[in-house]
Design brief:
This protein is mainly beta and 479 residues long. The protein has 2 domains: 211 residues, Jelly Rolls (Sandwich); 232 residues, Galactose-binding lectin (Jelly Rolls, Sandwich). Helix content is 7%, strand content 38%. The strands form 3 sheets. Strands 1, 2, 3, 4, 5, 6, 7, 8, 9, 10, 11 and 12 form a 12-stranded antiparallel beta sheet that branches. A 7-stranded mixed beta sheet has the order 20-14-17-24-19-21-23. Strand 3 and strand 4 form a beta hairpin. The longest helix is centred in the N-terminal third of the chain and has 10 residues. The relative contact order is 0.16. The structure holds calcium ion (CA). The site of calcium ion has 10 residues, from strand 25.
Length: 479
């Protein structure tokens, strides 16, 4: 069960052995990427700290409260970010402010920590990293804080923020996520990673390089060679038009059906679904027709999906899929949801009761189903989440092990799936959903899905899980 990046490990091990490095070095820090390299940036000022809760006078004076700038540090002969925070910065009730963007919109699953080099010239800083998560989830997550003060010799210090341990969250936009026993779903950001300064911060600090570190705790999304993927039951191959009837769009936010058809926000519109004749065309059986999905990425509220007849024999869902996203990125991020119900109830899930009123049907603004928690609260069901990156513009067989989904919500008889974070069972599956997420909002995402199947792949749940979930927290500390 190799994963993409593990293919490189034997060469690393061999090199270390040749060099006589102790075996213990294997598995140590690996720099996944430099997420902010000030050496590559233009000299000059950046926007100072500001906040939407400030008065107009405070916003006008933002440049007096803090100054952010790309500078050349003559002592270290390197280009750096310089952060100056005045003790007059208006904190109000806030405990931290966002200072800098330091990372990508999404964390690779292997990312275990953020590491950066800083030099405090004067004063002290209380630093954290964090970002919002998926829209239906957990508001914002912050790492543990690190306090750095000026050292007598003015030396650079390396500080690190774990992406697993000591995390905290807030409840800024949580609804059902407020009750979640896990602090994040799968790989937690939805926007870029930010550097935050806590309220005791004041002085002058230089920041050099920001790196994303892997240590082997988080793992790449599991991949399986074709001969390891055993078909259990097809879900749809779209060779017959009838397969389109299994597909639908759905909306997870509250809606008012007393109004004429409307969009809750202008970009919260149904994804476009159609059967398309541009399948793989490579002679593989079933490759003539695909489901074509098109959506401009937005907050994770608008989804497409397909009904699934679950079976206990399956431990994964496989999709033969091609993702296309303009803009040049090599990978396309897709968020997946799996809807589940207690096995005896999945066949009687009341889909029709979640349709909009007749006067809405046929409107381009109407979704097939409305599955917000206020409309579904009498139904026994749960939904789970996982995230994947797909190669841009290339067909791939994507395997989603059920063990790599995290329960995001559960009601009625399925409430325990959520409360106790039980794994997703094959015979509980009733639908698979997906969306082009917020990070993909600058361009349309097109998915061509040649076929979807329930499958069985080797390995146990622990091997199928790409991310650790710790700590599992109780929501008792919420404000
Ligand atoms: Ca097909």
């Amino acid at each position: 069960m190799p994963t993409r990046r593990e293919f490189g490990f034997p060469a690393v091990v061999a090199a270390l052995l040749i060099a006589g490095t102790p075996a213990a070095a294997v598995g140590d820090d690996r720099v996944l990427k430099v997420t902010r390299d000030f050496n590559a940036e233009q000299l000059g000022p950046l926007a100072p700290i500001s906040h939407h809760t400030w008065t107009d006078d405070q916003k006008h004076a933002a440049g007096e409260y803090s100054q952010l700038e790309i500078v050349d540090d003559s002592a270290s002969r390197s280009r750096c970010g310089r952060i100056k925070i005045s003790d007059r910065l208006p904190w109000g009730a806030r405990t931290e402010y966002r200072v800098l963007t330091i990372g990508p919109d999404y964390l690779p699953p292997e990312a275990d920590a953020v590491r950066m080099r800083v030099r405090v010239v004067s004063g002290k800083f209380e630093l954290r990293v964090g970002s919002p998560t998926v829209y239906f989830g957990h508001s914002d997550i912050l790492s543990e804080s690190r306090e750095v003060t000026a050292s007598a010799d003015g030396a650079w210090q390396t500080i690190e923020f774990s992406l697993h341990d000591g995390l905290t969250r807030n409840f800024r936009r949580a609804r059902f996520g407020r009750e979640s026993p896990v602090i994040y779903y799968t790989r937690w950001i939805q926007e870029p990673l930010y550097l935050f300064a806590g309220r005791s911060s004041a002085g002058e600090m230089l920041i050099d390089q920001v790196e994303l570190i892997a240590r082997g705790t988080g793992r790449d999304y599991p991949e399986f060679p074709g001969d390891e993927i055993k078909q259990v039951a097809p879900i749809a191959d779209f060779e017959n038009a009838a397969d389109l009837e299994r597909t639908f769009t759905f909306f997870q936010e509250p809606i008012d059906f007393h109004r004429e058809p409307y969009l809750v926000r202008p970009d919260w519109r149904p994804p476009q679904l159609q059967r398309a004749s541009d399948g793989r065309g490579d002679g593989i059986k079933g490759g003539k027709y695909s489901l074509r999905f098109e959506q401009q990425g937005t907050e994770e509220t608008c989804f497409a999906g397909i009904r699934v007849d679950g079976t206990a024999a399956a431990n994964a869902v496989a999709l033969v899929v091609r993702a296309d996203h303009a803009g040049g990125a090599s990978e396309v991020v897709v968020d997946f949801l799996a809807y589940a119900a207690p096995a005896k109830k999945s066949a009687s899930f009341p889909w029709a009761s979640f349709e909009p009123p007749g006067s809405w049907q046929g409107s381009p603004m109407a979704f097939t189903y409305y599955l917000s928690e206020d409309r579904t609260h009498e139904t026994d069901y749960a939904f789970y989440h996982t995230r994947r990156t797909l190669p841009n513009g290339r067909w791939t067989t994507l395997v989603l092990p059920l063990a790599d989904f995290i329960c995001a919500y559960g009601r009625g008889e399925a409430a325990a799936l959520f409360r106790e974070q039980r794994p997703l069972a094959g015979d509980a599956l009733l639908a698979l959903g997906w969306t082009a997420p917020f990070g993909a909002r600058r361009n349309k995402t097109v998915l061509l899905i040649d076929g979807i199947s329930l499958v069985r792949v080797p390995g146990d749940a622990e091997q199928h899980r790409s991310f650790p979930q710790k700590p599992v927290v109780t929501p008792a500390s919420r404000p």
